[in-house]
Amino acid sequence: MTKSELIAELAAANPHLLSRDVEIIVQTIFDEITAALARGDRVELRGFGAFVIKHRDARTGRNPRTGDAVDVDEKHVPFFKAGKELRERVNRNAGRKRRAVTSSDNAADRL
User: What residue spans carry the Polar residues bias annotation (predicted)?
Assistant: First the structure.
């Protein structure tokens, strides 16, 4: 799902809000998450997951084209860890899709 699809679905689910207002709300949430991560804070959304910043040390990497050694600076990268409720929901829905594919495959084998 893209950000514009998210905005469209939220606007459809909340007809009392204007689409441009929903867009401002979504953008504000993303901006606040970004600002918190930039400050080094952890962002936790209960039932969904947590965004944290992980530190990666400087290292020597390789240029894939030439094979030459390249110094890679240390950096901080955003990392998302899914919450228990999200993992369970995804796994529950993935199981349904997998069973549906398996049952139709078996039906095709019988023909």
Answer: 101-111
* pTM for this entry: 0.70
pLDDT of residue 110: 43
Domain boundaries, the chain: 1-41
For residue 18, which phi and psi values (nearest 5 degrees)?
-75, 150
Six token digits for residue 55? 């530190």
Contact 25, 9 (CB under 8 A): no
Report the distance separating Cα 40 and Cα 32, nearest Å.
12
Yes or no: say if 51 and 33 are a contact pair by the CB < 8 Å rule: yes
Say if residue 97's pLDDT is above 80: no
| 111 pLDDT tier (thresholds 50, 70, 90) | very low
Spatial distance between the Cα atoms of 74 and 52, rounded to a whole number of angstroms = 17
